[in-house]
Amino acid sequence: MSGGGSERDPVERLAEEFAQRYRRGERPSLDEYAARHPELATDIRELFPALILMEEFGPAPGPPVPRADGGGGLLRRLGPWCRRHPALTVAAATALLLVVAAGSALAVLYRQATAPEAVALRPDEKPGGADTASPHGRLYRYEPGLGFRTVRRPRGAATGGYGEPRVRAALDPDGRVLAVCARDGVALVDVLRGEEAAVLRLPGAVPLRFTPSGALLTYGAGGLLRWPVVTDPRTGRCRYGPPLVVLEGGSGDGHGSSADTRVLALPDRDNGALVIHRTEAGARSEHGGPGVVTPRKADRTHTVAPQEDVRQCAVSPDGRWVATGGHGSGGGPGVKVWKADSGRHVADLPVAECGAVLFSPDGKWLLAGDGSFRLWEVGTWRPGPSLAGPGTGGPDEAAFSPDGRWLALPGESGAIRIVRPDTGREAARLAAPGPLLLQPLCFTSGAELAALDRDGKGLHFLDLRFVRDEPGGPGPDPGARPLEIEVDLQSREERSPDPGR
Amino acid sequence: MPPSFPEDAGAIDPLLAAAAEGDKAAWGTLLDCHRDRLRRMVALRLDQRLQGRIDPSDVIQEAYLEASVRLPEYLRNPAMPFFLWLRFLTRQKLLVLHRFHLEAEKRDAGREVPLSRDARPETDSAVLAAQLLARQPRPSEEALRAEIKVRLQAALDSMDPLDREVLSLRHFEQLTNSETAQALGLGESAASKRYVRALRKLREMLLGVPGGEEFWQ
Hints:
The complex is a heterodimer. By secondary structure, chain A is mainly beta. Chain A has helices spanning 10-23, 30-36, 41-56, 465-468; strands at 96-102, 105-111, 117-121, 127-131, 139-141, 148-151, 169-171, 177-182, 185-190, 195-200, 205-210, 216-220, 224-227, 229-231, 238-240, 244-247, 256-257, 263-267, 273-277, 300-304, 310-315, 321-326, 335-339, 345-349, 356-359, 365-369, 373-377, 399-400, 407-410, 416-419, 426-430, 438-443, 448-453, 459-463, 485-487, 492-493. In chain A, the strands form nine sheets. A five-stranded antiparallel beta sheet of chain A has the order 1-2-3-4-5, with no helix packed on it. A five-stranded mixed beta sheet of chain A has the order 11-12-13-16-36, with no helix packed on it. In chain A, strands 6-34-33-32 form a four-stranded antiparallel beta sheet, with no helix packed on it. Chain B is built from ten helices and no strands. In chain B, helix 7 packs across helix 9 (188-208). Chain B starts with 11 loop residues before the first helix and ends with a helix. At the A-B interface, helix 1, helix 3 and strand 1 of A face helix 2, helix 5, helix 6, helix 7 and helix 8 of B.
């Protein structure tokens, strides 16, 4: 065991002594300790009341917890696997809680401005909840094990929320940095610590994908950019930028990329879509006019067409297929599939209008939809399992887990549906406590799902361990060493040799 | 009078030596001086569904029986302080009881936490909530205490599990910093800093809820 006594925090040493005296019934005063240790007086006055609270309300063997006669059914049920995890975590830090005893029942009331809710311990010892604001009196069950943490934007900056202008995010290969759209640019969020580490201040930019080497591709404002990252192995500090212009112009419509970022697909509205096969870095970009895409000379490009008003593109992870979602009103198939290398049209998918086009990371499925999502098997383009259930989100609002085994879809009433793509079976519905309307954003490499709330544009992480029933990657660690990120915004043309990490 | 841990920790070794020689009185004294803290641990960790069905004293008694059998083994290789060893045996008994009585949770890895460096925190907010709510204040204090409890519960709910565990070990189980460090596989320095940080976070969370500042005053 490392760590000598001399390295202990002096406040902690005093706290231990204070607690031991408190337990002996001495009731030492804060003033006494502050006078004895004036150099620690501030800490003593700030922290020791919390210590007293813990001591005062510590557990003591007592009678069993009263059980409620809650009554009523439950509209939301998860699978029996959840029963293994009896932990109840309701993120109610913002709620004012009152405990009321009602006969033998114990009810915990959540008093919130917009959606008063009641949560009661039911006879089956499962916590249930009633949305008393609903005219239908809907009942919920807060499923155990649902951890919920929120990342807030730094105070004092006119930064707005997350998810603007698009609900898009990308996770770096290490699983530590989540790039999220924000009003003032692309925010880089430290997944482990749950805090924003830096912003690529380029309003209107949208994260596309991290390259395997950790560089970030963005599109939208400034064109298609690559943000190389260099990490100082000595300090761990990393620097993103300066951004290298891969393509001038372009738009903020949904771009697609293969896993290695060598094959890109860009919506080109009524011209169909532009497919770019990137070479190794080496060519310089050419400058085009506003809105004109001008790929580098060494890149091989071709157009896939015809299709009306293409707004969404996706590229299969292996770079073989391109799917395009049209937004036209011609009544034709909303989604088309093309061979990426030749541009040959291979399938029409009967989606009424432009919807999500998203390949699963394992390359097995293509998700497409225009409000109600459907799966197609990649290669055969036959319809996959039904994803029965309401889908109320826009085209961007779906996410596959990195292994492709789970799919998060927007559900009714702001809940998120977690579905197994191979069977279509719904594994869970995740509802935030309170009135938040959630939309899925991105699975982390740990066992969490990043989600946005539609109104507040807050970024939340939902614990999925109880759903996935597998260890997953590293969980949240607020004690992890903070990420130190510098951003160099000075744009340059892409050049050779590759300066990326 | 039995030594009260941890102040009289120095008295433990002679008692252990005597117990190893077969001194039953010394052995009984050793066990008695740890009983209260072990009861706290059992009360904290016992699934609320088993409250009323399992007496914490029985759990401790079973652990003590096993300790009697395994004492020579422990003395040959005392890898951890005596109290932590007793706590480990008691925790193991508790896990066995949980498995037996809560068949559906047989494979709940989250509750089967080894005392190792990789151990995950094992105090979940439901357990804490149950313990907090289980105390019965006098009627005249009920309203105020109820509000404090739920605020504290809400704050603990929102905390990082490891921070929550550190606070639980320090205040609910009344472990010292050294014992907390060993229980969590941390260095003493790290455990010390983690505790102060957890205390600070708890304060911030209590301040952060609506009306928190007035409440704190």
